[in-house]
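fold-stage: in
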Amino acid sequence: MAKRDNKVIMEVRASRATMEDKAVKANKDNKVIMAKVDNRVIMEVMAKVDNRVIMEVMAKRVTMVKAQMLDTIVRVKGLMATNKI
């Protein structure tokens, strides 16, 4: 799961980097100022969506890890309690 997520994030970053390059090239070319503006708007929208998605994935993963850790701690405490008795 983590491998696939990383690949997706890397692909998103790569596509964003190429878009930024295009925006810079468009910026140099005065004829294509509109393209630069459009690219920046699209990139901002993509970044917002990507960040939200990535945050949600991270949050789910963190809560899962926390749940597993708590479960383990509860089990260990349970074992220790039964051993003491």
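fold-stage: in (second)
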Amino acid sequence: MTNPYEWFDKRAKDWNQTPGKIELCTRFVAEVRKQANITPESRILDFGCGTGLNGIYLINDAKTIGFLDPSSGMIEQVKKELAEINKTNVEIYNQEISQTTMEPFDFVVSSMAFHHAEDLKGTISAIAEKMKVGGKCFICDLHKEDGSFHAGFCTVPHNGFDIEELKQTFLQNGFSKAEHIDFGTYLQKEREYPLFVLTATK
């Protein structure tokens, strides 16, 4: 059976060396901290975590950080990073979110992962099911683009998003409120791609 995550598995070791990734995660986590009332009792899920940058940056803010990614290569990198910083207040999920069983989370964060979600409605619904009522989901991703962002790298189901359509999809699949801010750009192949941060409340 073909491994649908092989592309990510092969690139996991060098993932953080891609220009802009660490800078974006640093900015995104700062925005999450500004909007979210994170306490020492909070549970935060890093959805589509990749190498776990978002969750690791937040690991001292919360009681528990969940790292979820279906790529085994990415999860192995997460485990290595956690071992290096000697952190154990974590939960690891090497699955699609619809396949997981977990205690509900207060916050979900996701950076540049949502455009890889094949079943967008199902993914959003599954995230809502794994959250506490009143919890907030923070999504950083691309505004609609022409497909050039991933050209030559991989095929994705979403070439960014129409933000108004995406907010409606959240509202129709388990969330009571959805709003967004524009969030600067991401430099890829000498081109600036506009970003947003969507905040959805269950």
